Amino acid sequence: MASIPPEFKVSIDSARCRKCGICVNNCSFGALEFGDDRVIPDDSKCVACYRCVSKCPDNAITITNYQWANRGNANWTPETTSNIQKQAEFGGILLSGMGNPRPHKIIWDHLLIDACQVTNPSIDPLREPMELRTYLGKKPDNLEFVENKEGEIELATELQPQVKLDVPVVFAAMSYGAVSLNAHKALAMAAKKSGTLMNTGEGGLHEDLYQYSDNIMVQVASGRFGVHNEYLNTCSMIEIKIGQGAKPGIGGHLPGEKVGEEISKTRMIPSGTDVLSPAPHHDIYSIEDLSQLIYALKEATNYEKPVGVKISAVHNVAAIASGVVRAGADVLTIDGYRGGSGASPMVIRDNVGIPIELALATVDQRLRDEGIRNRASILCAGSIRSSADIAKAVALGADAVVIGTAALIAMGCSVCQRCYTGNCAWGIATQKPELVKRLDPETAAQKLTNLLSGWSFELKEILGSLGVNSIESLRGNRERLRGYELDEKTLELLGIKSAGVGQ
Amino acid sequence: MKSSCYIPSGCSISAMMSESGKRIDGRAITKSIALMHDRSNGLGGGFAAYGIYPRYAEQYAFHMMFNSFEAKGVFENYLKDHFYIVHDEEIPTRPGAVYEEDTSGINIEYGMNPITESPVLWRYFVDVPGNRTQFVSESEYVFEKVMEINSKIEGAFVASSGKNMGIFKGLGYPEDIAAFYNLDEYKAYIWTAHGRFPTNTPGWWGGAHPFGLLDWSIVHNGEISSYGINKRYLEPFGYRMELKTDTEVVAYMFDLLVRRHNIPIKTAISALSAPFWKNIDKMPERERKIITAIRQVYGSALLNGPYSIVLGHSRGIVGFNDRIKLRPMTCARKDNMLYMSSEESAIREIEPNPDTVWSPKAGTPVIGELYEEVE
C-alpha cells in the first residue's frame, strides 16, 4: 500500500518524551514502536484513536491530519482517490465503522425550541416536579371502567404490557461480539441505575447479565444467534431487527477470529467460525411473515412482553412503519441514515437511507392520519448527540430515543471508526483479552449513568422553559418547534413552521 | 369579526350554579365579572347560560355568528338539508348598549366601550331527523355537523349547540357584552362568564369564551402550553380546531373523554390535570391502576400550562386548575348556590355572606351537580 499516503501524521516531541513506553504499550494498531532509543511512529497504521495521546504523561504526542499538497481538485478529493487506490490494491468492499460522517445538513441543528414569556410562566425544575417517565408499549384507543359493588369505579380494560423508562433514552443494539463483554456489562449496569434499557443486539445475552433482565431488551435478528427460550424470557421486551440505519438491506458479519469460547456459547455457534447474519430474515419475505414472527415471540413469552420491530429509515418508511404497526409491533424503532455500525460497507453507509428527522416526522404523522399512533411507541435512533436532540425528537413525535455512538463515547470511544478491525484501543469494540480489560465495567457504567443524569437535568430545564412539567406535553408537540434555514418542503414534512412565524 | 393584535396579560372567569335547579337572571353573573374589569382588555367577553330555553328544551339550540348574510344563506341551506328547523330568530341585541350599574370596584369606569358592530347573530332550534341516526347517535350526528360547519362554511361559526343552553359572546368587555345581549332577560340555573385579555391568539368574535360544543361550555383563564399535541391528538378523532385559540381543545377533550369514551368526569379530570407520578405511586392499588392507565393511554390529553377552567354542562359545573396551580381560582357555597371565580372579591360582590369559601388545590376538581330538576 505504499502508493496510498497515510491519513494521519504522528509527531513525538523528543524534548518532552521521557521514553517510558506507555504509548507503545497502549497502541493497539501497531503504529508506535521503540527503536534507536526513541519512539518511532508508523503513520500509515495510525487511526487517530488518541489512546496514546491521552495516556502520555508528558503530552509529547501530537496527531494531525496528514497534509497533502493541495491540488485544488474538489471533485477528486484525497478521500475519493485513496478509496480507489485501496480498491485497486485489494479488489474488495470498503468497510467502515460508526455512522455516516458526510457533511450533509444536520436537521436537528436547524430546529429551534420555544420558551415561555409572561402569559405562560416558565417552571423551575429545581423547585417543581418535572416528569420524564415514559411507558413503551401498545396503548388502547380508550379505557373502559366498571362500577364495583361499593359503587367505586374500576378499570375494566386490560392493558398490554408496558415497559417503564425513567429517562426517555435507551441504549442501542450493540451485540456481544461487536462490543466486548465488559462493554455489555457497563451498558446493563447503567441501564439498571438509570431506569432504562440496554439492547443485546443480535449476539445473545451472556449469562453474567441475566441478573439485569428487567433492564434488558433482547434482539431477534436474521441470524437468530443466541435466541432460545430463556433468552426471550430474560428481558423486559423483545426487538425484531429488520434493518439498521448504517446498512439498510445489508446483513452482518462477525469474523471468526472474534468468536472465542464465551461468544461461541452465548451465540450458540462453533468457536472460530465466521458469523454471518443474512440480509433478510429467511422466514420473513413479506409483512404477514413478520406478523407471524411477532406473534410467535408473543406466544413464547406468554404475551407478557412488548415485541418491537426495528427498521431503517428508507424512502417509503412511513408506509412500512404503518404495516409494521398493523402487523402487531408494540414498539417501532426507526434508525436514520446516520446511525452507527460496527462494520458497514462504506458505499451503503454513506449513500443509503434518509435523515431520521424526516423519517420520524413522516412516520408519526402517518400513524396519526391512520388513527393508529396509540398502537405502538416510537423509538428514534440514528445519531442522537445531546439532550437538545432528544427534546427535538420527542417534539417531532418520538416516545424515546436510542443512543449507540453517544453511549460508546461516554465509555471512552473516540470515534476513530475502526470498530471492524477488532483492535479497539479502548476495550470497547474488541474481543482481545488484553484490550477488553482496559474497560472497567463499573467506571464505564458510572460514566453512562452520569451522561443520562446530565441529559435528564437538561431535558427538565427545557421542559421548564417550555412551561410544561411532563414530557408527554412535549411529545408530538411540534407547535413548540420552529425550523431555521430549512426549505418549504422540509418544513412541511417536519410539520413545523419557520422561525419567525408566531402561532 | 375583526382580528386584533396580540397584547399580553391575563383573564377573568366567574361561574355560579343553583344545584337545586333554581333559575336566576343574568344580572348577578354580570356584576361579578364586571368587578374584574381590569383583568380583561375589551378584546373578548362572554357568558354561557343553562336552562334559558324551556320552550325549546328538547331542540338543539344553535347560536350562530355570520360574517355576512350570504354566509347565513349558505348555512341555512346546509341546516335544512341536515335538520328540522323548529324555530329560528335573530338573537336580540342592543347595539351601543353599555353596562350602567355600579360595582364596589373603585376606579373602574364602565360604559366607555359600547358594542356597536357585530356579526350577524342568529339562533336556530333544530331537531335531528330520525332517519339520520340509524348508524350514529344523535349527539355524534350533531357533533359531526358542528365540525363540518365550522371548517367548511366560510364565515359561519357555531357559538353553541346544546339543548336548553346558549353562549353569548363577542368582542368587548364582558359587562358590555351582557348589556348588548340583554342578559338580564334570561334566566338560568348555571351561568359561567369570561373576560378576555388575549395574548397569544387573536381577539375576535368567534374566539371569545365560552367555547361550546353540544352540552359542553368552557371558560378558561390561562394558556395551554401543550396545545400542539392536544390538537394533534384530537384530530384523528374528527375534531377540527378552527377557532384560533387553545381553549377549544379543552371543550373537545371533555367531549372525547366523557361523551364518546364514557369516562366519569372526575376520572377524565385526572387525565387533563394529571396527578404527579410520585403521588400516583403511593396511591392505593385500585386508584393507582386507574390513574396509571389513564396517564399511559391519555398522555396526549394532558393539559399543561397555567390555567383555571370552569366546565359547564346541563347537569352541573366542574372547576379545576392546572397541575401546580399557576392561575387563581376561589370557590364558595351559600345554601344551594356554588360559586367559582378568579377572585374571591367577585364572589363576595354578589354573595357577601357565603357559608364557606375555599381555594381548591391544584388538580383537584370542584364539582357542582344538579340534584333537583330544573324549576
Describe this entry's structure for a reader.
The complex is a heterodimer of chains A (503) and B (375). Chain A is of the alpha/beta class. Chain A has helices at 22-26, 51-55, 78-90, 181-194, 229-232, 261-267, 287-300, 317-326, 346-351, 356-369, 387-396, 405-411, 433-436, 441-466, 488-494, and strands at 8-12, 32-35, 38-41, 61-65, 95-96, 111-113, 134-136, 145-147, 153-155, 163-165, 169-171, 198-199, 216-220, 237-241, 252-254, 275-277, 307-312, 331-335, 344-345, 377-381, 400-403, 481-483, 497-498. Chain A has 2 domains: 8-92, Alpha-Beta Plaits; 163-498, Aldolase class I (TIM Barrel, Alpha-Beta Barrel), CATH 3.20.20. Chain A is built from 15 helices and 23 strands. In chain A, the strands form 8 sheets. Chain A has an 8-stranded parallel beta sheet. In chain A, α4 (181-194) runs parallel beside α14, α8 (317-326) packs across α10 and α11 packs across α14. The longest helix of chain A has 26 residues, at 441-466. With 375 residues, chain B is α+β, with helices and mostly antiparallel strands. Chain B has one domain (12-224, 308-369): 4-Layer Sandwich (Glutamine Phosphoribosylpyrophosphate, subunit 1, domain 1), CATH 3.60.20.10. In chain B, strands 8-3-10-1-16-15-17 form a 7-stranded antiparallel beta sheet. The longest helix of chain B has 15 residues, at 138-152. The chains are: A alpha/beta (503), B alpha+beta (375). Chains A and B meet through β9 of A and α5 and α9 of B.
